[in-house]
Amino acid sequence: MQLNPTTPVGAVVTDLDLADVTPASAEEVKDLLAEHGVLVFPGQEVDDAAFLEFLRCFGDLAFTVGETPVDGFPDLNVISNVGRTTPPRSQFHVDSSYMRVPPAYTALRTVEIPAQGGETLFTNQYAAFEALPDDLVERLDGRTVTHVVTGLDLDEDEETQAEHPLFRPHPRSGRTALYLSTPARCVAISGMDDDEAASTIATLLEHSTRPENTLRHAWAPGDVVMWDNGAVLHRADHSDVVGDRVMHRGMVSGAAASGADTGVAHPGSDHPGW
């Protein structure tokens, strides 16, 4: 396995067949995800069955209720622009942060690549935290953000909101990441009124998604990309897409991110296994 880090986040992993990954070797991949945030596995010849086999090496799978499942593979969901009269909309976010224990990892495999456009962007949320001014860190330290679900019609017994630390220690690396999502999903910050909270989220999101803190991944046939939802934000760029863009997505439960000796609890938090 060869690792080629990319700037400002991520790494390209070559000389690795995903079919050869086992639950034991997946622990090394988890460490790489905790360090680099995003891993690109190019040239993979995997169908949905093999994709699932790979994902299950990392832990129990998670599925976003309300998404469209892949036919015959209910643990995967379809991300597609096919048949749409208007392009999908995507803002920088983390997946399912409205859950008490959000997914640890998300992965996409290419099914169909458009002739033009359709890149996915990732941010380095470790670097975003580390670049915050000291006075802002002091003002925000210890605060939590209330994340809510948007765009999904969920049953009453489904989770729809959760509270997470704004400065989130990663359960595997121990490094602190700036943990937030799209403004529509971040509806409150502890100890702030609504206007101050909205302004703060907007400022932090702008800070996180500066071009110098963002990796743009251009998809190629055979790409599988996996990322750590605690270390990066992501969004798809649907502008100027020419042709069909189809991906199949799988997610791994949040409990998979930490091990018996690597979990890091946020002071005063009841979110073990993040």
TrEMBL record:
**Any one of the GO BP annotations:** sulfur compound metabolic process
Gene3D superfamilies in alphabetical order: Clavaminate synthase-like (3.60.130.10)
Per UniProt, which keywords does this protein have? Dioxygenase, Iron, Metal-binding, Oxidoreductase
For this protein's source organism, the top of the classification is: Bacteria, Bacillati, Actinomycetota, Actinomycetes, Propionibacteriales
Q: Which residues form the TauD/TfdA-like domain?
A: 4-251
**Pfam families, alphabetized:** TauD
GO molecular function ontology, one term from the record = metal ion binding
Question: InterPro entries this protein is in?
Answer: AtsK-like, TauD-like_sf, TauD/TfdA-like
Q: Does the keyword Iron apply?
A: yes
The record's comment on protein family reads: Belongs to the TfdA dioxygenase family.
- The molecule here is called Taurine dioxygenase
Q: Which Gene Ontology cellular component terms are annotated?
A: cytoplasm
Q: Record keywords: Oxidoreductase included?
A: yes
Q: Which organism is it from?
A: Nocardioides scoriae
